[in-house]
Design goal:
single chain; about 575 residues; about 20% helix; 4 domains; 6-stranded mixed β-sheet; 24 strands; about 20% strand; Nucleotidyltransferase, domain 5; 5-stranded antiparallel β-sheet; alpha+beta; elongated
């Protein structure tokens, strides 16, 4: 064994553990052969090649195994005084002299590798790929071989064919990265066998009721997704208990395992005790390794992308992200996924094919039927109100709408949808004049140029009429009370949110000009033509006596019948 790498020829990597005298372990990095020029009686003898010499950088001195020579190489060793002779087949190949410290030293010199022995070379190492790898600041070996093969530089000489050490510690220090995470081939085969969960947020623009987070729960076997809105991360445990109760009641099965990212919201003592009590196995991903919880992580990313697309299409403020998320989950569970061939997540969970005939373009214009007892003018009032379609309330057989005039939400089963138009987009507003205005102010004979112009109105978020539900998706009722009113929400400028940002420049009060609204009513009621003063009425018939001319500032003749008599005179 030797610590001198430049002595070893035909070097090959070789790693073994070596126990030294103090009981510690060191390791070899390679092996090869060493040429030795023995001397005897002051004369140089023929070269001897020592094979299977280990390269051990941590050694302080060379070590030579006498027992190995006698046991495996057929040498006979004789000791006389301070001299050890090494014989084989009647020939003495080399000798060793002992010192006062009872240490023997071979008599002779070691022959270094020829290219490193040349004094014109500034190195004591073999000119191999490993040396040039270090000289050129640790490029990859394919790059180094390309330089040689394509003759891209001069002076790069390789005189040793030894293979480079596969372990380069400087390269590991500077370039080591995490191994890629292969897709797992193992999936749960039964409903609720494994639930993936992840929390998303905070979202800088709060929903109508101040929610800034959502938590997802995804069944591994069928990829059915459910979620809850939360105001704080600490509500994760209560959301999980609600999901567990609902899912187990729907399926008649129990949750077997829960996988999450070991975030603080999942690691409370209450949740640990709850899972232990109900026999739920906990599976945590390694720190800073979201790939191990990839199902839930990718689902949250997909939901965020879907929300941005829906809000952008509808032209609605970011505070409608809660409604958009609920509608997205409703639709997503009813669309196929590659993880479950031939079925949708809905069918894997409920056992029947989903019906998508009631799907409509989210955010489009909808003319919602007004029941007779709710019409402002009774039987003569408008039978519809123009709203924005915002979702599918799970507790009703109907749709959910938002009325931008009253700032209330409406749940109804009767509506006409115009999926071409979106009230949130100025350029995409249909023109309809409300019937109530026409009844109160009958139209006069106007030309097209005299038609009323558009009137602005505020379609800012809902008022204080209702609380928003904290649940959403196919599992839980979302938004609005039993009267159909919409939740309040703060008027927060959407540009504050980097994660959800439809490409709109919304003003703070979110006004829009809609050609569907009637003009402002006149300041005073119109007078019938037959009640107008003579000078403003229709011309007199030919057979009637001529009317007297009007008297400026009133008439003083009470009997003239002009109608302008002034009592004060």
């Amino acid at each position: 064994m030797t610590p001198h790498r430049h002595w070893i020829r035909n070097f090959v990597p070789h790693h073994i553990e070596i126990k030294v005298a103090n009981g510690s372990s060191i390791f070899s990095q390679g092996r090869g052969s060493v040429f030795f020029a023995p001397t005897k009686d002051g004369k140089t003898q023929p070269y001897v090649e020592f094979t299977d010499v280990l390269y051990v950088p941590d050694l302080r001195n060379n070590l030579f195994s006498v027992l190995h020579l006698s046991s495996y190489k057929g040498f006979t060793i004789t000791i006389k005084g301070d001299t050890m002779d090494f014989h084989k087949d009647g020939t003495t190949f080399f000798i060793a002299k002992t010192s006062t410290s009872n240490t023997a030293y071979l008599q002779g010199t070691t022959i270094p590798i020829p290219e490193t022995a040349n004094l014109s070379s500034a190195t004591t190492l073999p000119m191999d790929l490993e040396l040039w790898h270090r000289r050129l600041c640790h490029p990859s070996y394919p790059v180094l071989k390309k330089m040689i093969r394509e003759d891209l530089v001069t002076g790069l000489k390789i005189t040793s064919s030894s293979k480079p050490d596969p372990i380069c510690e400087p390269c590991l220090a500077g370039k080591m990265v995490a191994d890629p995470f292969p897709s797992s081939s193992h999936h749960s085969t039964k409903l609720l066998g494994l639930i993936h969960s992840d929390v998303h947020g905070p979202i800088k623009v709060a929903s109508h009721s101040g929610f800034k987070y959502w938590v997802t729960f995804i069944d591994d076997s069928g990829k059915f997704r459910a979620g809850y809105l939360m105001k704080k991360k600490s509500e994760t445990f209560s959301s999980f208990k609600k999901f567990k109760a609902w899912a187990e009641n729907q399926t008649g099965l129990t949750i077997k395992a829960l996988r999450e990212d070991k975030g603080g919201e999942y690691m409370g003592k209450e949740m640990d005790d709850f899972c232990a009590e109900h026999g739920i196995q906990r599976q945590h991903s390694v720190r800073a390794r979201p790939q191990q919880n990839g199902v839930a992580e990718r689902a949250n990313r997909t939901m965020e992308q879907g929300i941005v697309s829906m809000l952008h299409q509808a032209g609605l403020p970011l505070s409608f992200w809660g409604e958009a998320l609920a509608a997205f989950l409703h639709v997503w569970n009813r669309t196929p996924t590659s993880a479950v061939p031939g079925m949708t997540p809905w069918e894997t969970f409920y056992g029947n094919k989903p019906d998508v005939s009631k799907m409509r373009v989210w955010g489009c214009v909808a003319y919602v039927h007004i029941q007779k007892d709710k019409r402002e003018w009774g039987g003569l009032g408008s039978h519809m109100e123009k709203c924005i379609f915002i979702g599918y309330p799970p507790d009703y057989k109907g749709w959910k709408f938002y009325n931008p005039i009253t700032k209330k939400s409406v749940i109804s089963e009767r509506a006409q949808f115009d999926e071409r138009y979106f009230l949130g987009i100025k350029e995409s507003v249909p023109s309809v004049i409300p019937t109530t205005t026409l009844l109160e102010y009958p139209p006069t004979h106007t030309t097209p140029s005299q038609q009323p112009s558009s009137v602005p109105f505020d379609i800012s978020p809902p008022g204080d009429s209702d609380e928003e539900s904290e649940h959403f998706g196919d599992v839980y009722d979302h938004g609005g009370g039993r009267d159909g009113s919409a939740p309040p929400h703060p008027n927060v400028p959407p540009h504050q949110s980097p994660s959800l940002s439809p490409k709109r420049n919304w003003p703070e009060d979110f006004p829009y000009w809609l050609s569907s609204m009637s003009p402002e009513p006149p300041s005073s009621p119109r007078k019938p033509l037959d009640n107008l003063p003579p000078d403003q009425g229709a011309p007199s018939p030919p057979d009637s006596p001529p009317r007297p001319p009007p008297v400026e500032d009133g008439c003083v003749n009470q009997s003239c019948g002009c109608g302008n008599f002034l009592d004060s005179i």
